[in-house]
Write a structure and sequence with these properties.
- The protein is of the alpha+beta class and about 150 residues long.
- It has one domain.
- Helix content is about 30%, strand content about 30%.
- It contains three helices and seven strands.
- A four-stranded antiparallel β-sheet has the order 1-2-3-4.
- Strand 1 (about 50-55) and strand 2 (about 60-65) form a beta hairpin.
- The longest helix is centred in the N-terminal third of the chain and has 18 residues, at about 10-25.
- The radius of gyration is 17 Å and the shape is globular.
- The relative contact order is 0.12.
Length: about 150
């Protein structure tokens, strides 16, 4: 009989995985996509040290921040992609000083990778009103902390 010894690191990893799965369960998505997260994604990241995650509630897509990389999850395509941290960068465009851009965007942030075009990471956040700016700023802050660890 093999017995798994629960260390504080593995307990934290399990807690962060459960936090991620709880976030997934809180959004509207098909049972097929929810099952994909619970089975396929969970199996793929089993034992990885999860640092955090972000979820796009409108698409069901997610990014999972690991110690030295991140994983992009796109349930509609059944697509998992892994990006080493040293290939991930971000841009932040703040249109408040000079007015909104042509599409009415007040602020836009993008987490992206330097990789072949068919495999690029392009995680984009946009807001259309000033009261949404703190949410984007909080995400960018998390991105920077992770990138600079």
């Amino acid at each position: 009989m093999i017995r798994r010894v629960m260390t504080s690191a593995s307990a934290l990893t399990d807690e962060r995985l459960q936090d991620f799965l709880d976030s997934i369960s809180s959004i509207s998505m098909s049972n097929k996509n929810r099952d994909w997260y619970n089975v396929e994604v969970t199996a793929a990241i089993d034992g990885c040290s999860i640092k955090g995650h972000e979820l796009n509630p409108s698409t069901g897509s997610a990014i999972i921040f690991l110690r030295n990389s991140l994983v992009l999850c796109v349930p509609e395509k059944g697509h998992l992609a892994h990006y080493p941290r040293n290939l991930v960068h971000f841009f932040l465009d703040d249109f408040r000083k000079n007015g909104q851009d042509a599409n009415g965007v007040v602020m836009r942030a993008e987490l992206f990778s330097i990789s072949p075009s068919e495999e690029q990471l392009a995680w984009e956040l946009m807001c259309y009103s000033e009261h949404e700016v703190p949410n984007i700023q909080a995400s960018v802050s998390r991105w920077l902390r992770w990138l600079n660890e």
